[in-house]
Request: fold
Amino acid sequence: MTAPSKAPDRLDHFALFGLPRKLWIEMAPLEQKFLQLSWKLHPDNFVNATEQEREFSLQRSSEVNDAYRVLRDPVARVEYLLELEGARKEGEHKQQAPPELLEEVFELNESLDELREAKEAGGDLSTLKARLEAAQKNFQEKLGEVDEHLQVTAQQWDAATEAKAGDNDRKAIMVRLNELLNRRSYIRNLVNNVAKELT
Amino acid sequence: MGRIVGIDLGTTNSLVAYTDPQTGAPHCIAGPSGSTLCPSVVSLDPDGSIIVGEPARRRLLTQSERSIYSVKRLMGRGVADIQSELKLFPFRIDSTSQNVIRIKLGDRLFTPPEISAFILRELKNWAEAFFGETVDRAVITVPAYFNDAQRQATKDAGKIASLEVLRLVNEPTAAALAYGLHEKQRGRVAVYDLGGGTFDISVLKLISTGEGDIYQVLSTNGDTHLGGDDIDNLMQARIREKILHEHRVDVSAQPDLVQELRKALIAAKHQLSEGVATRLRFELPNGAVFAYELSRAEFESLLRPIVDRTIGPVKQALADAHLGPSEIDEVVLVGGTTRTPLIRSTVQEYFGRKPHTELNPDEVVALGAAVQANILDRGVKDMLLLDVTPLSLGIETYGGAVAKIIPRNSTIPASAQEMYTTGVDNQTGIEIHVLQGERELARDCRSLARFTLKVPPAPAGLPRIEVRFLIDANGILQVAAKDLRNGQQHSVEVQPSYGINDTEIERMLEESIEYAEQDFSERQVIEARTESEAILVATQKALANAESKLLSTEERAAIDQSVAALKESVAGNDYKLIRKRIDELNQATTHLAELVMNGAVSTVLEGRKLAEV
Reply:
């Protein structure tokens, strides 16, 4: 089977909510707008309508829900913006360890292997678990750092958009955002894997 | 167009409800026995007719091989899925069943949607008798954690029962709707729904806007195979073991005894909601008597693991809603099993607040379904329900991995578009496998459908086919494909992995009509005649009573005249006329009934006085 890739959306999520393509979004007005659109477009209003109207309501209300799901999540929002601007394709970004983390990741994987072996052998797990918990905390902090970077870079994007900056500036910011997203997803997978082994 | 109703198609009991157009309040409709609960039991009579509800439940003891209960556990499932259930439930599955399960009742085979359709038809009959009009549309509730195949099977059951299913509503959401209307609740609400066979937890936000109230589901979780049935099975296993140990009698070898034991234990379970102990007593086939005192402590020790299993989904639902237990403003208990004191105290402890139990936990889901039915029917609206999909939707990618395209707890309708192309020159088809579940590998998720996208021959990588996956407001998947090079819409034939196709549904619909004894008006005439017989006999008896001498001549003449008129109408086929004459006779005999009643009371009193003297 062929690997699927994201198709371009017919309706841009930002436009659907009447928003500019910026990354800072106020939550309360977004929710208001979501409820308003849902009130008008939900299929429950069209049960006794024509086939065509029902189909329209189904398509439109699903677009509203899809858009709200993405826009209210700060990370999904960045990913979506990059896809929209053609700066990111799903499946293209490889899960590669960021070079400066290589050593720590290597150690972590070794500890994970040891823990699995010890679990099978039924040995004492407390020291290994303590080591992994420390590593997990360390990576969680790194995740926090990435999120801070992401926020700062998002602000730069919004500033560049407001200033109507040139293509090169915008592209440079998008490359940074893309790198941060990849790094975030890598670290998050690590943290999840450790959490799975520890429970 | 006929009337619309809300139906709770439950594992143990099913109910039908409607909304009073004057007051806007929902009410459950009672069946012929006067109860609003219709046991979800179906039995095939040796004469070939289908018996549903309480009479069928009684046959579980005498004709277990022709009867079935808890069929909801089999809805939308494949033979391979239910092997563990078969050890606990006396389902008689046809051995030639492949993907679709076929259940044996006597010498006939039925699919789970057909069995469910018999129950739906029975409820439809109850409602039609109540309204005196046909019922052709329904809102049916399903466990929130039901997957696509289970929802589709429920919708199919509606179709087979000649009901247009306007919406499938999640059970906890329906309960919240009923409570919201009743209590005018606002804020964040958790609904804990432990029924006969399924457990659901839903977290909702109730919002008042200028236009009306919005019930937004934030998250849902659950277990479609956890409920009161499991408690019954654990109790049964314990008692069977005791009987085997003490009397060397293997209960499981005797289906009738199994059913008798099951019935007694369900009664014991209900008693233990109030009392601290209950006595069990059975006569065994070898003449021995098994007697045992079951304490609440022993019962709760069996129940504890089941209650604990509900906590995992509760935690996950709260985490998905980004809320802690203390941030929940109201907790609502739904489902008969939540009458158990241990469950009430566990839920109260976890959320740190007393749960709502004001509405009858057996009826609340049906009431909510009736509220939603009314909203859909009227088109005027002051209320909106925004529900979510309980499970992530994914597609299989390289190496058997799953790419999630619609995450769980997405508000529905929800959709995702994926772009496909070919890998080799002149490739004419692309295989797509759609799955539902949270696991990372396709083999650990639920297979929903496999289909082949047809592609016109072209060099590799040139075709661009966009596939749109859409989960509709019922939580059911739709797929559409579009060739982006020419804008042509492809129809996609999605063959569900575990469902039945439209042709089969048509056939089942035809067969079910064959089973549905008579049409609506014929049935009405029969019921009206039966009722008139009863009232004529009662009147005759009352007139023979000494107290009837106290009637005035006019009163006596009026009664005689009404009796004659009713007898005359019964000869005809107009059920409305018969009902009118029954009412008239009822009115004419009001005073007579009073006289007879007074006479009976004074006799009793005199009798007592005599005894006292």
